Amino acid sequence: MAGVVGVELSSNQKKAYRKADRYGIYEANVRQDYNHKTSHALVLSSPWGQLVAYTALIFKGQTRRHHGVRHS
């Protein structure tokens, strides 16, 4: 749990942290369920066969300009 070291959290603060943690897990499950349903529908409707590739792309840090290099 987040908080200041050595300071006891109130029960309402603890409940709020637990609720926020559960919501993050819920969001991840919703995304995973949507991906599964979409890929399943693609496979069922695909006239080219039964192969659909799925990859987890990580874009963090890939879309920003690199500030250390300047081209003249």
UniProtKB/TrEMBL annotation:
Source taxon at top rank: Bacteria
Protein name: Uncharacterized protein
